[in-house]
Amino acid sequence: MGRHSCCHKQKLRKGLWSPEEDEKLINHITKHGHGCWSSVPELAGLQRCGKSCRLRWINYLRPDLKRGTFSQQEESLIIELHAVLGNRWSQIATQLPGRTDNEIKNLWNSCIKKKLRQNGLNPNTQKPFSEDANKEANKFSFSFSTADISKQGVSQPQPLQFPYETALSKPNAPSCPTQFSKVFDLGSVCLPPACTEVPNSPYLEIGNPSSCSSSMFDTGFHSWPEMEGGKEIQIPLQNDPEETKWSDYLLGAFPVSSVLNCEIQPLYGNDIKAESHLKQQAEDSFGTDIHRLSRVFGQI
DNA sequence: AACCGGCCCAACCGCTAGTTT
DNA sequence: TAAACTAGCGGTTGGGCCGGT
């Protein structure tokens, strides 16, 4: 991997763009398209590196950009998406037409974070700080029952195929956020290495705080892909994956969340429902995120 | 009017992943 | 296969603006 070639070039302008520079870039791209960004400065007659040109175009000059302040609806959508995707600004931006990742990132860091804090919510988890503290204390001591999954007619411990990976690995698979493909490309849902089967019991014990990353519990999926040697839970493929669509899963066909019958937690309200122990923790690990995504993508 | 501090946002930097040679 | 190159991402920075003193 080489360094970006423009880093070595001298006599290139930096800092704010002048109207003349903007005009040159707009004219060039309008007429010829950007093509290879590294050649744009030369062709457009600019003393800038290609990277700088690209950024200027994407973040400021693109004709399809929606300028101006974010609406309340957009802010809510960003919060929803951030809860699921984390700081994947470019992916969040894809769900907000006319908005750039940079813009969203700035909004998040300057405004939304503050608003959430003012409402007593942790910007990272979007849950009340007090609840985070409780979870911090309890998160390594729960079990969840694989027998719940068997209620769906799946006899355990038979391995069950998880639908996402099959669908996603196909060339014409429905598109989905990278966050999901990162997780599900693994081919199954991997539990952290710290999970162990409880002997003679239908439970999986999640313990060993030293090897379990807290981010998994705080933000749902985040640390699953990094885990190695995880135990797999596989979920049955009931339909032909060829015909499987993202919306099918997001809008209710996802077996685990349907088993758990998760409910959506209001983001802004302080009225957090008291859920059952099992259900709440299962939601924390994946159910809520699935439903949130479902809602969010359903809005679009 | 001058200074100060906080906020916002455009742009930069460093890095990784993917592609080409 | 490895090196070189490009595109794109996320974190960070710095300068301008604005309100308060």
From TrEMBL:
Signal sequence coordinates: none
Residue ranges annotated for the HTH myb-type domain, each copy included: 9-65, 66-116
Keywords, alphabetical: DNA-binding, Nucleus, Repeat, Transcription, Transcription regulation
SUPFAM superfamilies: Homeodomain-like
One GO cellular component term noted in the UniProt record for this chain: nucleus
Compartments where located: Nucleus
Keyword Cell division: no
GO MF term set: DNA binding
InterPro entries (UniProt xref): Homeodomain-like_sf, Myb_dom, Plant_SW-associated_TFs, SANT/Myb
SMART domains: SANT
Main location: nucleus
Ranges of residues in domain Myb-like: 9-61, 62-112
Domain of life from the UniProt record: Eukaryota
PANTHER family: MYB DOMAIN PROTEIN 55
Protein name from the UniProt record: Uncharacterized protein
Taxonomic classification: Eukaryota, Viridiplantae, Streptophyta, Embryophyta, Tracheophyta
